């Protein structure tokens, strides 16, 4: 009998932009679409965040038309909502037990993902043991500063995508951003790609690195991860 594959989802603990009057958090559908894909294949799934505990939700993602069937089903399920109220801390995670890591997005992650050494440790271990490293939308901020054991950046010279600066401008939030994630990726030597049109599903696969551009790419990203697993 084969052991079930195990996937670790990463979510944010941040509840607002630099200005506390502008709330943000996890873009729920980016978690739920992937969760549904992995659940359908019988994978075991867990959730981690930089500080553990509660992961706030991005309010804009909970409104029509962005609140889709998958996200609404999660909101309506107390057991699943409890998973977001009590996420694990990085030090509680043994990366050796996971086949893939999946960084969710929402603008919140721009603040707490890039420099979290616990998340970097887990990501490095999963990559170096032959696992899949993946992200969707702003989740790629979690890969910005992850270095491998030889000191090189994980993203250097690798094809990658994530929420584009054009999409930030079109979403009307560019001025609130702490940095330009697309530009920061390019500075680190990543080979950044994006779809010709904004806000359409777009996934880039470079070996065991799988990245999706925006919230509408979550399901397709998870399917590419599952194909590799």
Automatic annotation (TrEMBL):
Q: Which domain of life is it from?
A: Bacteria
> What protein name is recorded for this chain?
Type 1 glutamine amidotransferase domain-containing protein
The answer to whether keyword Lipid biosynthesis applies is no
Quote the Gene3D superfamilies the UniProt record gives: 3.40.50.880
Q: Keywords of this protein's UniProt record, alphabetized? A: Glutamine amidotransferase, Lyase, Stress response
Entry annotated with the keyword Lyase: yes
Q: Which InterPro entries match?
A: Class_I_gatase-like (IPR029062), DJ-1/PfpI (IPR002818), Prot/Nucl_acid_deglycase (IPR050325)
In the record, the note on similarity to other proteins reads:
Belongs to the peptidase C56 family. HSP31-like subfamily.
Species the sequence originates in: Shinella yambaruensis
Query: Looking at the Swiss-Prot or TrEMBL record, what is one Pfam family this protein matches?
Result: DJ-1_PfpI
Chain ranges of the DJ-1/PfpI domain:
29-225
């Amino acid at each position: 009998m084969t052991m079930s594959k195990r996937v670790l989802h990463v979510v944010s603990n941040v509840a607002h932009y630099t200005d506390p009057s502008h709330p943000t958090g996890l873009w729920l559908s980016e978690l739920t679409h992937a969760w549904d894909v992995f659940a359908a294949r019988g994978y075991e799934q867990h959730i981690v965040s930089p500080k553990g505990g509660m992961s706030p939700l991005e309010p804009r993602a909970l409104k029509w038309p962005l609140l889709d069937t998958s996200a609404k089903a999660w909101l309506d399920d107390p057991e699943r909502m409890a998973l977001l109220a009590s996420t694990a801390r990085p030090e509680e995670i043994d990366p050796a037990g996971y086949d893939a890591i999946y960084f969710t997005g929402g603008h919140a992650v721009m603040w707490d993902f890039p420099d979290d050494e616990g998340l970097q440790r887990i990501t490095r271990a999963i990559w170096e043991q032959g696992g899949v490293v993946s992200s969707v939308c702003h989740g790629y901020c979690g890969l910005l500063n992850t270095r491998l054991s030889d000191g090189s950046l994980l993203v250097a010279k690798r094809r990658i995508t994530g929420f584009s600066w054009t999409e930030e401008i079109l979403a009307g939030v560019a001025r609130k951003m702490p940095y330009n994630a697309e530009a920061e990726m390019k500075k680190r030597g990543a080979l950044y790609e994006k779809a010709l049109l904004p806000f359409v599903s777009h996934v880039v696969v470079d070996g065991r690195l799988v990245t999706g551009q925006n919230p509408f790419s979550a399901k397709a990203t998870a399917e590419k991860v599952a194909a590799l697993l």
